[in-house]
Amino acid sequence: MKPILALLAGLLGTGLLAYFCAAGHRDAIQQDLTGRTKAALARSTVSDLLVAADGREITLRGVVPSEEAKREVGETAKKIYGVHTVTNLLEVRVPPPLPASPPPLAETSPVVPPTVLTNPPASQKPVVAPVQRPPVQKALAPPRGEHGQPEPSQCQKMLEATLNSRQIQFETGKAVLRPSSYPTLDRLAVAAKKCAVTDIEVSGHTDSRGARPMNMRLSKMRAQTVITYLMKKGVPAQRLTAIAHGSTNPLASNATTAGMQRNRRVEFAIKSAAPKARQP
């Protein structure tokens, strides 16, 4: 009887040991999948990203700007090694459109009734004094420089208002534009064409990950990609200059994911007025 009890106790102990080992291994797998998923989606358009792992099933939560971006993030997560199932619970929030500019104030002049002189001589008809009209006030408009174009400072404000804290998005580690950035670039092209006598500097920036030479090349390539897009929309190439800054001008600390996301950006700056066209 005692040998049987000893055998049963040994089997029970072996089963418990196997269970705890499996549970510990499961936790390690989940932590590994969660970490690798966050790293793979760090450069995506998702904000407030939350990743939860249940075994080899990944659940995604956060906010994206379009249905296409949601699908792209889901497909990226499915390609991560070890992930079997992806539950995509990302919320689509389309950025609000830019407010329409108010119509310019019409040029108006108040109507002043004629003044009739009182007590005229009996032999004369009433004399009507000439109407005195105040000078016409012109409608408020942005300051204009030569050729009727906005001043460079006004052009800079137009570009910044059009970008409005939005970031131009690229494929991870590449100089390929994400489709979600097309509407913003289209509006930037319209603003640039309104300032036809200014030069525009397109600056590329990266976070601190990667070697400095690689970051400089990547930032230059991304700035050039934006210039190519603007040229296709009608902005002359001679007005556009690509500048590479790499990770040398961060806006925030690269110690956090949010800080690195802010540092990966493309900026637009009005640098000078283009030279005057020669008169024939």
How many structural domains are formed by the residues?
2
Secondary-structure element order, as H and E? HEEHEEHHEHEHE
Q: Based on CA inertia axes, which overall geometry fits?
A: elongated
Q: Could you give the distance between the termini?
A: 117 Å
Structural class: alpha/beta
Per CATH, the architecture of the largest domain is 2-Layer Sandwich
* CATH topology descriptor of the largest domain: 60s Ribosomal Protein L30, Chain: A
Overall strand count: 7
User: Which CATH class of the largest domain?
Assistant: Alpha Beta
- The residue ranges in which pLDDT falls below 50 over 5 or more consecutive positions are 136-143, 274-280
Q: So how many helices?
A: 6
Report the helical percentage.
25-40%
For the biggest sheet, the summary is: 4 strands, mixed
Q: Proportion of β residues? A: 15-25%
Radius of gyration from the alpha-carbon trace, in angstroms:
33 Å
CATH superfamily of the largest domain: OmpA-like domain
Give the averaged pLDDT, no decimals.
Answer: 78
Describe it for me?
With 280 residues, the protein is of the alpha/beta class. The protein has two domains: 78 residues, Histidine-containing Protein, Chain: A (2-Layer Sandwich), CATH 3.30.1340; 128 residues, 60s Ribosomal Protein L30, Chain: A. The protein has six helices and seven strands, in the order αββαββααβαβαβ. Strands 1, 2, 3 and 4 form a four-stranded mixed sheet that branches. α5 links the parallel β5 and β6. The radius of gyration is 33 Å and the shape is elongated. It starts with a helix and ends in a 7-residue tail after the last strand. 20% of the residues are buried. The C terminus is likely disordered.
